[in-house]
Amino acid sequence: MHAPLRPATTPLVWQVGALCRAIAGALEQKFNPVAVRGEISGFSRASSGHCYFQIKDGQGQIRCAMFRRAAALVDFSPRDGDLVELRGRLSVYEARGDLQLVVESLQRAGAGALMEQFLRLKARLEAEGLFDAARKRPLPALPRGIGLVTSPGAAALHDVVTALRRRLPHVPVLLAPALVQGADAPADLVRALQRLYAHAGTGAGQPIDLILLVRGGGSVEDLWAFNDEALARCIAQSPVPLVSGVGHETDFSIADFVADLRAPTPTAAAELAAQPREVWLAVLDGMATRLHDAAMRALDQRAQRLDQAAARLGRPSQGAGRQRLHLAQLEQRLRHGLSTQLAQRRHRLEVQQPRLQSAIQGRVQQARQALAHAARGLELLDPRVVLQRGYTWLTDAAGSTVTSVAQLPDGAAVRATLADGEADLQVTKTHRV
């Protein structure tokens, strides 16, 4: 919990329970897990099987609680004055506001040197960032293959394989056998992991997407191979997520802190690696149900469209009625358009009629003037007008106009046309001018 910023003179007022939880959270992040060496004082065992005592030395003491599950794993009977080494987690007992250490494992102090070595290596690797949560990777939901590092003769192998066959029988398991105890075990574990790394992701051979590093329970000395620095760095270089399942639930190793995920037991590691087969079958059933529902909805929609199309085809009178209505609308629009155009043209004629009449009268007047002018011209060309001036028009017997004396032999009959009549003449003699 983060307190809001306030002036130094106005501290935040906490609820008691909230303050206890905040302190407990700070302890969890700062110290846990912890290992402590000291002397037992005030040891008591309740009827429930839980144990309560203090661990102390010459400079201080801490109240401890060891619950029945952890107490059942202790291989001796603790008594006041015993020098012990214990591992656990600091917390706050909210009912009394007491600091207490919840003990997860308890042993006599003979392994103290190993514990000091463990804590020094843990602190150094933690400072380098090998334990950072940011580098932890999620486990694949459906691994194509699983790599397994353990001893081929260990009970852990049987437990893991049994769990995997029960949950994911179709996923192949690639075993890289290795020693899990003794001085040669760390180097052998590193070699086994490196062999699996060659198959990781899209590597050659059977691809694997997950590695399980497991070993059953034992003493601190038995599990010490998993606290090796070279092994820890090799785990940190794993190209795929790696699950560490070493010892019992109360056992912690450096390998647990470096791995992407810690499992309390080898069997739990296998169960974390794969969802039960029934879960995936349920997922497939759900997907099949959704697919069926989607198909049925699609069929229903298409059936509805088919019904609508059939209804339109089955009642052509409706279509004819719609077409009849459409034709009536078109007729009305046509009549309206024609009447509008006729009115427009009538109005244009009414507007243009006076101009047309004026133009016609002007053209008639012009025609009359032209006709009078032409009449005067024709009158001037009329032979009778010429004859009235004393001229005569002669034609021969054939009716052809006589224009030369050469056409008139002596004795020829000619007709003379005068202004007021005609006279038949006979040529007695001709004279050339």
Automatic annotation (TrEMBL):
It catalyses: Exonucleolytic cleavage in either 5'- to 3'- or 3'- to 5'-direction to yield nucleoside 5'-phosphates. Signal peptide: none annotated. The keyword Transit peptide does not apply. Residues 15-106 form the OB-fold nucleic acid binding domain. CDD domains: ExoVII_LU_OBF. Keywords: Cytoplasm, Exonuclease, Hydrolase, Nuclease. Its EC number is 3.1.11.6. InterPro entries: Exonuc_VII_L, Exonuc_VII_lsu_C, OB-fold_nuc-bd_dom. It is an enzyme of class 3 (hydrolase). Residues 130-425 form the Exonuclease VII large subunit C-terminal domain. It is found in: Cytoplasm. Heterooligomer composed of large and small subunits. NCBIfam families: xseA. Belongs to the XseA family. Bidirectionally degrades single-stranded DNA into large acid-insoluble oligonucleotides, which are then degraded further into small acid-soluble oligonucleotides. This is Exodeoxyribonuclease 7 large subunit. The gene is xseA.
